[in-house]
Write a structure and sequence with these properties.
Layout: H1 7-30, H2 37-50, E1 54-55, E2 67-71, E3 74-76, E4 90-99, E5 102-111, H3 118-136, H4 144-157, E6 161-162, E7 168-170, E8 177-181, E9 198-201, E10 204-206, E11 212-214, E12 221-223, E13 229-231, E14 234-237, E15 244-245
Antiparallel strand pairs: 1-4, 2-4, 3-12, 4-5, 6-10, 7-8, 7-9, 9-14, 10-13, 11-12, 14-15
Helix pairs in contact: 1-2, 3-4
The structure holds magnesium ion.
Residues 105, 169, 200, 202, 233 line the site of magnesium ion.
Amino acid sequence: MIIIKSDKEIKKMRKAGKIVAGTLDLLEKNIRAGVRTDYLDRIADDYIRSKGGKPSFLGYQGFPKSICTSINEVVVHGIPDSTKLREGDIIGIDVGVILGGYQADAAKTFTVGDNIPPETLRLIHTTERALYAGIDRCRKGNFLGDVSHAIQTVVEDDGFSVVIQFVGHGIGRNMHEEPQIPNYGPPGRGPRLEKGMVFALEPMVNQGTYEVEVGEDGWTVRTKDRKLSAHFEHTVAVSDEDPLILTMP
Ligand code: MG
């Protein structure tokens, strides 16, 4: 069952979403070669708590840190550690916040330094465009499959691969609620969207094969061919009019 949120609940999620957006902005300003991912984790955790929120990921099914930092061939769920960012890396950062009992979740892929190959920038831009194509389908009366299909179309038209093993999700009081939202599939299928549904859309896009594998730590998801992967995510509410992006600044 997809839980419908009242306007009041969506306002609460929007407050959590502002903290998520503020965290990603702060992290962007601190991304440079030589910075350790556990430093990024620490400043994110401090910022979230300074705003009265709690990091959703810390302790979630045993996850040991407050954000996910996924470098280069890491698709999602990378664990912050003593790894230093290097010139030319890309890093996907995923941030979740709980405030007043409600969650918001977003992710963005950043570049380290200015020396990024055009093909890498294209992967990142396509992933972000795919997210926005999905967001634009989050309108009442559409089918959930329309959202998935819009994401897949942007990705595959640009010659990249959609990860199928991990998907977007409903979100509210819990970080993961129904429905699952694959980043692929036919249009015109699945539940009809209604006002008050809130989704975390999150295309994970690979330069090479769609296949991924989970590392020995039980978390870190890598591309099987070790080519690059990008990840963008927003928490989005279906309204009477345009979709509401709750994780905007
Ligand atoms: Mg998510």
